[in-house]
Design goal:
The complex is a heterodimer of chains A (520) and B (284). With 520 residues, chain A is α/β, with parallel strands linked by helices. Chain A contains 14 helices and 21 strands. Chain B is 43% helix and 18% strand. The chains are: A alpha/beta (520), B alpha/beta (284).
């Protein structure tokens, strides 16, 4: 076999390695963790990723129009600000470039093991180490940090006949750039965050576009604010001006949390803004009616777009306001019974978020999988560690996503927690550490209590991906302000953990961290 | 529109004036109710449209909308406003229940004096954009305000926006947005009476009697009650610590959630910072 590659990551196909810390995933979580380990003087770690490049979600999502709906000065690391963002919101490739450069600048390249898909991981109680089996070798480590993300594995709808569809089927997160959609009849399935970005792009080139809508989205105007060369140079020369931009964005986003809490005035404001936006773009009252959501804003992600509604009003675009029901040959039928002849199906059906496939692959000391532990919904103590799984941390795992602010802020909070935990471990000679089951249950119960009165669950919710369909629990979302996550989960005190230096695990004494990690 | 689904709004008669009070009723994780006192020309809804409902997710929140005194000839005084807040709180909580108290702008003058009057019944006091003694800089602004109030409502609205918001907060406003904002900046006779009171505030002696654990919040870009006033309060009040937020005077338009963070985290752990501490602003 001959391969040519320009990466520095050329190693024998199978080589076993060990390191103190194994990190799974090289998106914002994995790269941020690695960078902070290095900045805190730790080199004994490896970052494993199944793909051939870093970047996670931003490497995988290359569909036309892919962009982030969190402003870039906030959707980036506080400790690695980027004065060169082209505008308030930036396209996906710009974020991917940022992550690639970040990985290089932070000296992470020697730590990367690419093409190392975690096939199986298990905790060995004898050696007190994790073993991770991958196609390129087996890795062992004392600590396992999951940076596997919420938006990693595409969710494919279980639609009869889709397998036998005669044309191309593309998922937005696995875009096939060899397929030319120009002049084709295209169906888009879904009206979530990816769909509303891809629809305007496809509508402009496709002969016909039909959009299958299970539930309409709340869509608000997108701020268009390019940063001129002069502004970018100001940010570079006077970094406090860039920090001000970041802080302004953060606090504005935080204020919108009132919507998620169902504060009447805040809900009215976002409703009025979104419906005004719709009315301005769509003059046909019947179409407008069918695009009007009937659930509380924020129950599903509130989307930002200036070109989605105009695209839906185009002559070559048809709204099928029912879910895709079945496929017969090259004909797609909605639940309504309407059928459409198409050449290509674009699935914007989201991700396996509530039941992440990685959980099937991670096993405790008795061989029981994380998925099995999570059979009634994902759960973690402090949203970061899991009862029954010693020496494991999850970044951007259960109850960490935000509907109103930047996940990078949450990721940084969790990185600080893990760094402080590792400091404690080192100072006290701790070999294993695991949260107590009772502590985790109490933590999760408190979260569910807070979630019960939020727009995600009140009135029975809206069938969003934030809620586990098996239990009806809000397992993806952190149901509070972002600052509150950092206040509660941004420092490690040992509370709720059992630890062992040798012998039987005992409750960890609660102690303020000796070195409180501030990331900025 | 109710501030939250559970909020009960009613009026309490104080010396013939009809004072509106809002009560979120439902208790929360904090064991004390929180009482909010708005500032000049404001109401609970306009100044605490974010803070009231969101602190109501943490504890029972009560807020009072001042009413003009029954006697139109009477001078408005700090004592009169203190009396309105106290009467409403006693009515809703009973005369002995301890509570936490937050005042903003002129409301912080009122809250500071009420805390001095009530001693240990107020456990935690938060003074946002507060001051003790009106100084020349403030009197100059006050005089311009009164002149414009008498002569030009449009110029008064512009002057209020100019003084109330930080320059960077005004910057993203389009002409249409600015016009909309200016149209909402109206002043009535009761506001003018509060402005008259603002020109005469001198409560430094009273504030030195405050025993409550106090957090002073300074808005860094406030030209109506600039930060030097809050540093003076840090000197006057014994058990005081100070923190800063990046905002003009109108925090409720610029950084409502940052004040929420400050108040929420402080009341959760009020002993975290010792008296005299200057607590740095957090950054995203």
């Amino acid at each position: 076999m001959t391969t040519t590659t320009t990466t520095t990551d050329v190693r024998p196909a199978l080589r076993d390695e060990s390191a103190e810390i194994l990190i799974i995933g090289s998106g914002f979580a994995g790269l941020g963790m690695g960078a902070q380990l290095r900045r805190h003087g730790r080199e004994d770690f490896l970052i494993l990723d199944r793909a051939q490049q870093v970047g996670g979600t931003w490497r995988d999502n290359t569909y036309p129009g892919a962009a982030c709906d969190v402003p870039s000065h906030l959707y980036s690391f506080s400790f690695a600000p980027n004065p060169q963002w082209s505008g308030f919101y930036t396209p996906g490739p710009e974020i991917q470039d940022y992550l690639v450069r970040f990985s290089e600048d932070e000296g992470l390249t020697p730590h990367l093991r690419l093409g190392a898909d975690m096939l199986e991981a298990h905790w060995d109680p004898e050696t007190e180490r994790w073993t991770v089996r991958t196609p390129r070798g087996t890795y062992t480590g004392r600590w396992l940090v999951m940076g596997t993300g919420h938006l990693a594995d595409p969710r494919l709808p279980d639609v009869p006949g889709l397998d036998a569809f005669e044309g191309e089927v593309i998922h937005s997160a696995r875009w096939d750039h060899t397929v030319d959609l120009k002049g084709k009849r295209v169906a888009v399935v879904g009206t979530g965050a990816s769909a509303i970005q891809v629809i305007p792009e496809l509508a402009a080139t496709a002969a016909e576009l039909v959009v299958f809508q299970r539930t309409p989205a709340w869509v608000t105007p997108r701020v268009v604010k390019p940063y001129s060369a002069a502004v970018r140079r100001m940010f570079e020369r006077a970094p406090h001006t860039m920090q001000r931009e970041r802080d302004d964005i953060f606090w504005f986003a935080e204020s919108s949390y009132a919507q998620r809490r169902g504060v009447p005035a805040a809900l009215d404001q976002v409703r009025a803004q979104a419906l005004g936006h719709l009315a301005a773009a769509v003059s046909d009252p019947e179409l407008r009616e069918r695009l009007t959501p009937r659930y509380l804003p924020g129950c599903k992600r509130v989307l930002v777009s200036n070109d989605y509604y105009p695209a839906m009003a185009r002559d070559n675009v048809t709204l099928e306001d029912s879910a895709l029901d079945r496929v017969e040959g090259s004909r797609l039928f909605g639940v309504s019974g309407h059928g459409y002849e198409v050449d290509v199906v674009v699935l914007c059906t989201g991700f396996e978020a509530a039941q992440p496939p990685f959980a099937e692959r991670v096993h405790d000391g008795e061989g029981r999988s994380l998925a099995d532990h999570w059979s009634s919904g994902m759960a973690a103590f402090d949203s970061t560690a899991v009862a029954g799984f010693p020496n494991l941390f999850a970044i951007n795992g259960p109850n960490t996503s935000l509907g109103h602010n930047s996940i990078v802020y949450i990721i940084e909070s969790q990185i600080a927690y893990i760094l402080e935990a590792l400091d404690r471990v080192e100072h006290e000679g701790i070999r294993t550490m695991v949260p107590e089951t009772l502590a985790q249950e109490e933590y999760v119960d408190r979260l569910q209590e807070r979630a019960a009165t939020s727009v995600w669950l009140v009135d029975g919710g809206c069938h969003s991906w934030y809620v586990d369909p098996r239990s009806g629990k809000l397992t993806l979302i952190w149901p509070d302000y972002a600052y509150d996550f950092r206040a509660r989960n941004g420092h490690f005190t040992g509370e709720g953990f059992l630890s062992s230096a040798s012998g039987e695990p005992e409750p960890m004494p609660v102690r303020e961290p000796e070195r409180s990690v501030a990331l900025i | 529109m109710p501030l939250t689904a559970s909020t009960v709004t009613r009026t309490v008669s104080v010396d013939g004036a009809s004072v509106t009070c809002h009560d979120s009723v439902t208790p929360g994780e904090l064991d004390r109710p929180l009482v909010l006192v708005h500032g000049t020309g404001g109401t609970t809804a306009s100044h605490f449209g974010h803070l009231f409902p969101m602190m109501a997710t943490r504890t029972r929140v009560i807020a009072v909308d001042w009413a003009p005194p029954a006697d139109p000839a009477a001078d408005l005084t700090v004592n009169l406003l203190v009396g309105q807040v106290r009467a409403a709180v006693d009515e809703l909580l009973g005369p002995d229940t301890a509570f936490d108290l937050l005042g903003y702008s002129l409301g912080s003058v009122v809250a500071g004096q009420l805390a001095a009057d009530l001693g240990r019944r107020v456990e935690n006091l938060v003074l946002v954009a507060g001051w003790a003694t009106t100084d020349v800089h403030q009197r100059l602004r006050n005089e311009v305000w009164r002149h414009l109030y008498a002569t030009s409502p449009d110029a008064l609205a512009r002057y209020t926006a100019f003084c109330g918001l930080s320059p960077l907060a005004l910057r993203p406003l389009t002409p249409a947005m600015l016009d909309g904002a200016l149209a909402s900046l109206t002043a009535d006779e009761f506001t003018a009476r509060q402005m008259d009171l603002n020109a005469r505030v001198d409560v430094a002696d009273r504030l030195s009697a405050v025993t409550a654990r106090t957090l002073i919040v300074s808005c860094a870009e406030d030209i109506m009650v600039p930060p030097h006033h809050q540093y003076e309060l840090l000197g006057i009040i014994d058990d005081a610590r100070l923190t800063t937020m990046t905002s003009g005077h109108a925090f409720f338009l610029e950084r409502p959630a940052e004040l929420m963070q400050i108040v929420d985290l402080h009341l959760r752990e009020p002993d975290r910072h010792p008296a005299g501490a200057i607590i740095p602003e957090t950054h995203a």
